[in-house]
Amino acid sequence: MTDHRTEPRRRGDQLLSAIHDAVLAELAEHGYAAVTMETVAQRARTGKASLYRRWPTRVEMIMDAIYSRLPADDSMIDTGSLRSDLIMLFERFVGELAGPVGVALRGLWAESLGDREQHARVRGYSRNGGLRLLRTIIMRAAARGEIDPAAITDQRVEAGPAILRYRILLDGRPFEVAALVDEVVLPLLTVPVTEGVQPVSGSPARP
Questions:
Q1: Which are the contacts of 38, defined by CB distance < 8 A and separation ≥ 6?
Q2: pLDDT in tens, 20-38
Q3: Which of 29, 42, 167, 180 is the most exposed place for a label (fewest CB within 10 A)?
Q4: Does residue 199 sit within a domain?
Q5: Please, are residues 103 and 27 in contact by the beta-carbon 8 Å criterion?
Q6: Does 200 reside within a domain?
Q7: Same domain for 13 and 96?
Q8: Which residues in 151-160 are b (16+ Cβ under 10 Å) and which e?
Q9: One domain, residues 120 and 155
Q10: How far apart are CA 184 and CA 12, in angstroms?
Q11: Per-residue confidence (pLDDT) for residue 9, from 0 to 100
C-alpha cells in the first residue's frame, strides 16, 4: 500500500472531498458497520489525525459525508414554479437515498435508537440539510405569491420528506415523486391554516 506521507500533501477542500469520497465508497462496498476512521483514512490516503481534527466520532464523519452529497445550492433549483422546484428537489433526494446515502441513514438511525445524544445529532443534520433547502424553495414560492406564507408550518414542510424517506429507506415500494408532490405536499401548502398555528421561523411575513 502506498504511504500517504510520501504523496503531495492535500489541504482544505481537496482533502475534505477525498475523505467524503472515501466514506461513500466504503459505505457502497462494505456497508455502514464496516466504516471506521481507519478504513476511511486508508482509502483517502491520509492520517487518522486528519479525520479526528474534523470529526470527534465516525458518526459525525459519516453524517458530514452523506449530507455533503445532498443538494446544497438552492439557486440551482429555481424553475419559477413551486411544483417543478419540489419535483426536482425530491428527485435528487430519491437519487441519493437509493445509494450510499441511504445505506448510511439506515445504519445511523438503527445505531442511534438507544442513544438520545446521537439521535439528536442525526436529526440536527437532517434539519440543517434537505429541510433547509425545502424551506427555501417554499418560502421563495410564497414571496412570488404562489402560496400563503402562513401555510409554511413545520408539520407541512416535513410531511413530504418524511413520506419520501419512509418509502425509500424502509418500505421499498416504488412510488412517483410527482404524485407525492401533487397529492401531499402541494395540498398541504394550500389548505387554509388553523387559527393560532405558527408558521416556520424565518418564513416570509404575510403581506
A1: 48
A2: 999 999 999 999 999 999 9
A3: 29
A4: no
A5: yes
A6: no
A7: no
A8: bbbeebbbbb
A9: yes
A10: 41
A11: 59
